[in-house]
């Protein structure tokens, strides 16, 4: 994203006449309006995607920086406004293929309800449009301001869990190195003075996103060397992660040394942001020692070299140039319109009007008493079924198995099968997750991929197996599930899918806890598959 400005164009503040260049003839107003319309067209055709980004900026402090990305990008373009006086727009027709590819990526994400990919595809349209309508040379001179727009996409939640784990590991290690005894259970730990838990707000994701955003802008404005820019960006990623670990450790130590009277409330967050501000100041202060103020500018030797060819005519041939630009503008609008139109058609064809009915799942097992109050925290489903069963004829000592099926149809944002907001537990729940991993289980002659998690709560520990049913296939992979959903909807087959979750008490060795789950899957998997297929056909 940090590009080296080696383009043969002057900096803002210089003018064509000052450099001995006569400048280029101005394009007609209708041509300028056509160029502007191409940049406004994505907002019209993909308004829902743009609105979803703004909604996240408005509701999440983590991504509130999205509001300032566009103004900064426009300011960076304004700094290079002299480029428009030296190089004429020169439509680059091969870029239309790239624009179609980006639009198709949006369509696939739309079919699979992958909001972040839709948003990235939407924002990526702007630099591609610039390449198509302005040409390679002019678009390249504005590459960073255009690509800087990608930072407006609210992305980063995928890093929250790894950052939580790192912060917990770092804090526990630092406490032990200090000589303080620690008892750890997942991301929760206890020291003699009290209990602590590393939650999402402690992950440092806000620090990391802020550091990357500021680091990109600082490196672009401060350095000219690609190597220096890359090294500074590496530091802009590493420093906030390590700093967040130090921040967590210091807050725990402040609480420990104060007898749990300080750094346990709002001041917890105040200390954190003050420390982050200090770290960022030191990072930029150190980076300033290697700044490069002068840009490499190579001005064309003659005026004729600036008069680039536009569709076989020189830039002086304004009518010919204008015709090519207007033609490209119309082609761009058509290329952007095709994908939302197909998405709307698919919605009309595949939308199911009948309510989902989950049929009875045949079983030789018998109902058993509930062993836990745990329920998965998923988006509302079209239909659901929950039961607790035990093998017939077994004693009450045989562990029962709880099963929950959540069936989804006509999925939308906030009501989808596979989503980062669908969780086994939340931070406010009495239960918390100790571990989670993917594994394969053999069921008859087939292999079943699933995710295995251990949850701990007031009722004790439970072992949970979960997987998805999408496109008449079982999978535990979120990405595969989204691709299967997108494929089905793209082929006008609908987007039906379901989540299957099994749970059982986990009181001893994990293999003992897996035994009843394996027996349940072997006895019921064909019946589950039959019931889901029947619900889809109805």
Commentary on this structure:
- The protein is α+β, with helices and mostly antiparallel strands.
- It folds into three domains: 29-155 and 310-349, no CATH class; 158-290, no CATH class; 366-537.
- 49% of the residues lie in helices and 14% in strands.
- The protein has 16 helices and eleven strands.
- The strands form two sheets. Strands 4, 5, 6, 7, 8, 9, 10 and 11 form an eight-stranded antiparallel β-sheet that branches. The chain has a three-stranded antiparallel β-sheet with strand order 1-2-3, with no helix packed on it.
- Strand 1 (183-185) and strand 2 (188-191) form a beta hairpin.
- Helix 6 (115-134) packs antiparallel against helix 14, helix 9 (160-178) crosses helix 11 and helix 10 (205-222) packs antiparallel against helix 11.
- The model is unreliable at 1-23 and 296-316 (pLDDT under 50).
């Amino acid at each position: 994203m940090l590009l080296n400005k080696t383009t043969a164009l002057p900096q803002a503040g210089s003018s064509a006449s000052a450099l001995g260049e006569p400048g280029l003839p101005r394009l007609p107003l209708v041509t300028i309006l056509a160029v502007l319309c191409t940049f406004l067209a994505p907002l019209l055709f993909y308004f829902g995607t743009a609105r979803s980004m703004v909604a996240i900026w408005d509701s999440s402090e983590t991504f509130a920086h999205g509001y300032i990305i566009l103004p900064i990008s426009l300011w960076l373009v304004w700094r290079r406004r002299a480029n428009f006086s030296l190089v004429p727009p020169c439509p680059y027709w091969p870029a239309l293929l790239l624009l179609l590819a980006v639009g198709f990526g949006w369509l696939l994400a739309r079919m699979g309800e992958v909001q972040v990919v839709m948003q990235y595809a939407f924002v990526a349209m702007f630099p591609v449009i610039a390449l198509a309508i302005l040409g390679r040379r002019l678009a390249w001179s504005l590459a960073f301001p255009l690509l800087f727009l990608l930072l407006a996409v609210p992305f980063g939640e995928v890093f929250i869990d790894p950052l939580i784990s790192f912060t917990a590991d770092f804090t526990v290690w630092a406490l032990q190195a200090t000589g303080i005894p620690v008892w750890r259970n997942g991301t929760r730990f206890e020291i003699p003075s009290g209990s602590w838990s590393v939650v999402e707000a402690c992950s440092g994701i806000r620090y990391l996103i802020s550091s990357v955003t500021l680091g990109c802008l600082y490196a672009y404005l401060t350095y000219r060397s690609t190597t220096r820019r890359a090294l500074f960006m590496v530091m802009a990623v590493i420093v906030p992660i390590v700093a967040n670990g130090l921040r967590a450790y210091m807050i725990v130590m402040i609480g420990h040394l104060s007898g749990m009277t300080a750094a346990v409330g709002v001041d917890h967050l105040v200390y954190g942001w003050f420390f982050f501000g200090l770290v960022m100041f030191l990072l930029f202060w150190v980076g300033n020692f290697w700044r490069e103020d002068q840009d490499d500018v190579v001005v064309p030797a003659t005026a004729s070299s600036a008069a680039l060819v536009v569709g076989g005519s020189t830039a002086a041939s304004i009518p010919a140039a204008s015709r090519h630009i207007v033609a490209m503008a119309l082609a761009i609008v058509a290329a952007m319109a095709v994908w939302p139109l197909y998405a709307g058609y698919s919605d009309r064809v595949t939308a199911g009007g009948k309510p989902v009915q989950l049929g009875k799942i045949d079983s030789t097992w018998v109902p058993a008493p509930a062993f836990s109050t745990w329920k998965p925290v998923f988006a509302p489903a079209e239909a659901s079924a929950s039961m607790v069963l035990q093998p017939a004829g077994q004693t009450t000592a045989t562990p029962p198995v709880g099963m929950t099926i959540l069936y989804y149809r006509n999925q939308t944002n906030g009501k989808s099968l596979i989503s980062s907001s669908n969780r086994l537990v939340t931070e406010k729940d009495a239960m918390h997750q100790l571990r989670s991993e993917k594994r394969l289980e053999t069921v008859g002659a087939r292999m079943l991929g699933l995710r295995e998690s251990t949850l701990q709560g007031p009722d004790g520990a439970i072992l949970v197996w979960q997987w998805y049913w999408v496109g008449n296939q079982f999978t535990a992979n979120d990405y595969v599930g989204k691709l299967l959903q997108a494929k089905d909807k793209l082929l006008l087959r609908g987007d039906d899918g379901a989540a299957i979750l099994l749970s059982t008490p986990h009181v001893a060795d994990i293999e003992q806890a897996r035994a009843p789950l394996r027996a349940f899957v072997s006895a019921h998997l064909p019946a589950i598959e039959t019931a889901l297929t029947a619900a889809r056909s109805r």
